[in-house]
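User: Fold this, then the next.

Assistant: Folding the first:
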Amino acid sequence: MNSNVLKAMPVLLIILGVILSCNKENDDDCSVTVSNLSATYRLTAMKYKQTSNSAEQDYLLLLPACEKDDQIKLNANMSYDYVDAGIICSPPGNDQGTWALNGNTITSNGLLNGTIESFDCTTLILLMTDVNIPGDKLTMTLRKQ
C-alpha cells in the first residue's frame, strides 16, 4: 500500500468507528405517544372472546369485503379519518372524528376505544372489553401502511 494511505488509515478507521457507533435514540422509540401513533393503519385481525373460557372467534371473517381494506388515519392534531379504501361499500363508509390518548388508553368518538396491548412502531394491538356483554374481549390488530 501507498505510505500516505497507511498514514491515513487510523484516521479513517476512527471516523468510520464514530459513524457506525452513532445510535439515534429515537430510531427505536416505540413508546405510546401521539407522535408515534399518528399514522395510517389497516385492520389486519379482529378476535373476539365472549368469556375467558370461550373459544376465540375471528371477527375479521364476518366483515364484508368492502370493510376489510379500509384505512384509519390517526392525525397528530388528534383528529382521525376513516377512509373507505379499496373496495368501496355502498354507501361509502368514510368518517371523521377525534381521538385522545391517556396513558395506554385510546378513546375516540368512533371505532377506536380501548387499551393499547402492544405497539412496536408498525403494529398496534388494541384491546376492548365489555363490547357486547360484560366481560367479553375484542382484540384489534392494526398495521401501519
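Now the next one, as you asked:
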Amino acid sequence: MTAQSLLPDVFPVLDAGDFVLRRIELSDAAHWYSYLINPEVTEFTSTEVESQQEIVEAIQDSLDSFAGKAAIRWALALKDTNEMIGDCGYNRVDAWNRSGALVYQLSRECWGRGVMTRAANEVLRFGFERLDLHRVEATVHTGNRRSVRVLEKLGFRREGTLHGYRFAHGSFYDCFIFGLLRQEWRDAHPIR
C-alpha cells in the first residue's frame, strides 16, 4: 500500500458552516503572509517567514505535496469573501501505518471563537472517514496553551513530551505529542 492509495486525485473541499476548507492557491499568498508575520501567531511554532515570496514557495510546496500524495493542507476561508484566515491539514500521510500528522495555524483576529476546533474536526472527519486513517497525531510547543485546548476539545490525549524536538526563533524547544485513534474520534463524533 502506498500513500497514493489514500489521498484522492481531486483536491477535496470541506464545508464547515460559515467557512470552507479548500485548496491553497497562489492568490492566497498575501492573506497567508499577513497573518504569519504576526509574532503572536508564530510564537509557538517553527514557522519563520521573512517575505511574501517564501509564502509563494510554501504554497507551491503544498500543491506539489498533494500532487505527490504525501500531504494535504487546506486553506481555511470565509465563505462570503473566500479570504484565507487560516490553514489546516496533514503535513504527513503515512499509508502503511494509516496515520497522519495534523497541523494548523489561524489568523490572530479569529482566535477565541472555536474556528480552528471546527476546522480541525472537519479535517479529522476527512482523515478518519475518507482516508481510513487509524491514528492522527499532533505536536505542540509546551507553552502553546491555546493549541493544547483545541486538541483536547477534539479528543486528543497527551502521550508525552519530546525534548528539544523543534528549532525555531534561535533555539530548540520541547513539544507535547498528542494522539487520537479513529475509534476514539468515532465514539465522540458518530458518522453523519
